[in-house]
Specification:
The protein is α/β, with parallel strands linked by helices. It folds into 2 domains: 168 residues, Response regulator (Rossmann fold, 3-Layer(aba) Sandwich), CATH 3.40.50.2300; 180 residues, Rossmann fold (3-Layer(aba) Sandwich). 36% of the residues lie in helices and 15% in strands. It is built from 13 helices and 12 strands. Strands 2-1-3-4-5-11 form a 6-stranded parallel beta sheet, sandwiched between helices. The chain has a 4-stranded parallel beta sheet with strand order 7-6-8-9, with helices on both faces. Strands 10-12 form a two-stranded antiparallel sheet. β8, α9 and β9 form a beta-alpha-beta unit.
Amino acid sequence: MSVTAPRRLGILAAAIVPLLALTACAGGETTAGGSASEGGDPYRVVVMTDGPENDKAWSNSVFDGISEVTAENTDVEFIGSLTQTSDIVQQGSAYASQGYNLVIIMNGAQMAAATQLAQQFPDTTFCQGPVAMTDEALAALPANQCVWNVKQQDGTFLAGVLAGLVTKTGKIASVAGGDFPAVTRQPEGFILGARCVNPAVTIDTQYTGSFSDVGAAQAAATSQIAAGADVILSAVDGATTGLYGAARDASHPTWVIPSYFDSYDAAPDVVLTSVLYNLNGITADLIDKGAKGEIGERAYLPYTYANLSVGELADFHDNPAVTPEVQEKITLIEQRLRDGEIVVPDDLDSPTLGEKGVGSSIDPASIGCQF
């Protein structure tokens, strides 16, 4: 494999590169971005996300995936901390105008930016997600746009099962950074999992509007703890450190369940487990597929536990709250989930976990939680 060492580029990188509008159309059924060929020009990829490479969360996992790429003759760049649509469009335009083959946007709120870029640069493939797509919506996209998705709610469902089994107050919580389906489904899956084993449990979910604002996350968690919450799911990135602070200051024992990255070492005193979506594996798979010419027109790439081990819980590290009885129950429910006996709804199902409050209204027995 010949993958260049990724380097984090600042937002100002686009100012160095002239933004050229390419007008040539992609032909036939081939991938717009081409593919890697041994001995020829490298297949060039840029990966863009909203946090830094070392945030111990979403972007850290994405960055780690670059080192797992197996395709030969591949050149990969990483750009973090792109939080605005205008930044995504600016950077995507800069790299596409340089002839990059594939632009990967690891942000579920940037569909419009991806479509705009795909329309402007038809010779580059733009893959954006996570987003759940209907066949009709997919058919309306530019031919060189692809969408990826990850079934996060299976992982947060299992985290909810754990929370429902260990809570002493019957109140759990979640702090989320953005209010859109790819985020909303995470706390909704969390409360549904908790209710699977503890029907009386309730949840307080607060959306801060930022994945990195530590102060906002800590303030939200502090208010939730004051109202009785003793297990909090993080659906933010670097801002998770604010949840650790709130849990440490709590008047009653309180646990935090981070997402996206195994964060035990960051706060072993308050981390119960972490929800892992194999974002590193997804990143590597998207790059490998692109380099091998395996991303077709209007491709939709869904990632699940079955095809890429999405939605696992990290090690409990002998946490005394996770008793042998709790572990046994989690193992049983996880097996039923993997076997299809329990089916956590997807964004496109009715009811959908992409809407607020749905996880608290679904009858757990209707999805297979019958014990």
